[in-house]
Amino acid sequence: MPPWFADPCCGHFSNDSSLSSNEISKLVKWADAGAPAGDSRDAPAAHSWTEGWNISPPDVVIEMPRAVSVPAEGDVEYTYEIVPTNFTEDKWVQMSELRPSSREHVHHAVVYIRPPGSDWLRGAPVGVPFTASSLGDAHLQHEAHETKSDMLLVYAPGSSPDQWPDGMAKFVPAHSDLVFQMHYTTNGQAAVDQTSIGLVFAKPTPKQRVLTLQLANDHDTIPIPPGVDNYRVEVRGTLPNDCTLLSFFPHMHLRGKRFEYNLVHENKRTETLLRVNYDFYWQLSYRLAEPRFLKAGAELHAIAWYDNSRRNRHNPDPKAAVQWGDQTYNEMMVGFFDVAVPANVDKAQFFVRHQN
């Protein structure tokens, strides 16, 4: 059973896998009694683990055309691979799942949708792995680290596939490319990875389009000091248009301790929507049991806390001041969240603010 890190103080979530107090009490009593075996006749059937995809059988599987060699040691720069979908018509994706072939080497992955009219990374090679530093053009190198393109799927250790309710889906225009952004980490063993993504299309055309947005602190101006166990970072933003809030996906690195999403009301009252005791190795999505309609101008506030002390068993170096950066020993602060908007509104249109 996967763990559950959301504080019960705040919010209700459809994928809550936590145990009730009664269930916990039973387990404690059983453990205190020496964990005796029960009657074998009462035992449930052996668990049958899923083989293959965890979503419905995909309508399409898109694989990176070229495998990526991951070295045994050292830092690995973000690796990109642009893959044409060859879709001759628009597609609405209701379910998606990313499957690395070398899962133990994937720190995270993001699959972006590059529509046919986009200029993003247009000078980069297609169908072969590349990194920003391998691109000869300074403008392309910058583009590799920054984009306004839609995200199809975000993947990290412990994350689950995307499965949107009926009537909601992500939009992939005809003739789009998928851009795989892969962050590999080394573990002493060299490997080869060839990640694929499975897609299940919505039928019929949905009425709402899902967008993945983010509240992010791209860099903290002060490194996290050595030994500090509760370093605080925050970011705020207002929604440019009406939308329905669906879910959250917080992302930090090994010093991550706690993450919180808040809604700031007009009277400045703060309502905590999610508070998570963060674990880098189980990066979960938190899906609202009841999606929340938010008006244009609503203010969202994300706060992250970091433990750079010896008490953090995942801390690679409590004596180091921690800089913001891409590698696992650096830190990040990204509060992804998913919203639903009318099907005819794309990401660029959503961010057009209208004057009252």
Question: Top keywords for this entry?
Answer:
356 residues; mainly beta; 9-stranded mixed β-sheet; 4-stranded antiparallel β-sheet; 3 helices; globular
How do you describe this structure in short?
With 356 residues, this protein is mostly beta strands.
Which assembly state applies to the chains in this document? single chain
Global mean pLDDT: 94
What helical percentage do the residues reach?
Answer: under 10%
Query: Major beta sheet, specifics?
Result: 9 strands, mixed
End-to-end Cα distance, whole Å, is 49 Å
Taken in chain order, the helices and strands follow as HEEEEEHEEEEEEEEEEEEEEH
Specify Rg, calculated over alpha carbons. Answer: 22 Å
Put simply, the count of helices is 3
Shape: globular
Structural class category: mainly beta
Q: Catalogue the unreliable spans.
A: none
Strand residue percentage: 35-45%
Report on this structure.
It is built from 3 helices and 19 strands. It is mainly β and 356 residues long. The strands form 4 sheets. Strands 1, 4, 7, 8, 11, 12, 14, 17 and 19 form a 9-stranded mixed β-sheet that branches. Strands 3-9-5-6 form a 4-stranded antiparallel β-sheet, with no helix packed on it. Helix content is 6%, strand content 37%. The mean pLDDT is 94.
Topology:
Layout: H1 21-32, E1 60-63, E2 68-70, E3 79-84, E4 91-99, E5 106-114, H2 138-144, E6 150-155, E7 162-163, E8 168-172, E9 177-184, E10 191-193, E11 196-201, E12 208-216, E13 231-238, E14 243-251, E15 256-264, E16 270-277, E17 286-294, E18 299-306, E19 334-342, H3 347-350
Parallel strand pairs: 8-12
Antiparallel strand pairs: 1-11, 2-10, 3-9, 4-7, 4-8, 4-11, 5-6, 5-9, 12-19, 13-18, 14-17, 14-19, 15-16, 15-18
